[in-house]
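=== Given protein ===
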Amino acid sequence: MVAAPAGADATTIGVLNLQGDVREHVAALGELGVESRLIKRPADTAELAGLILPGGESTTLSMLLESTGLFDVLAERIAGGLPVLGTCAGLVLLATEVLDGRPDQRFFGALSATVRRNGFGRQLQSFEAELELAPGLAGGGGGAAGAAGAAGAAGALPAVFIRAPLVVDVGPDVEVLASVVRPLPYPGAGLDGPPALPSASPVLLRQGRILAASFHPELTPDRRIHAMFAAMCV
């Protein structure tokens, strides 16, 4: 469900609507009974309880954030403590350091992490995996996020990686909530396959009121990540 910008409830979560999996995030929030609002211009950012930065193409998102006047407005809100969920390209936008990005690309710098764009490989190396969540997370959340009784509320978390960013390093204040072992390159990937990675790479991070994933939780029926974020916004 998408709430009207005017007079929105304080529990409304905004979804950046410039590029990427916007509808899928809105649908995921709707399944949890959480109000959402599409964010396309600075005026849309009033009265938000949280913000989702969806996947897409991080350099394009950076330019669109700049051209719409949203970047500085959102940067101020995020620095002021607005809870944010960044998925795939959204994770890139939140990082403090980005490798293989454009020189003029801007980032919010809210998550103490070094991230490599497309670090898991190109489109051909997209993959699915099942993640083991950190203790205490596997059962989903409670309270306003009690709708974690949605599909997959226990056990391994299904995750879809599409040209996913690789988390190279994290700061001491960052919690690693899930990691993944890099799969073998797809047949035919040849020398253009993904680079050699450590045995396990962080793919779900939390730092204060920032939650970030290398994967696309909106593309599976499991709503634990969105439920967790909704609980952070209460």
The longest strand covers residues 201-207. Residues 158 and 220 are 7 Å apart (CA to CA).
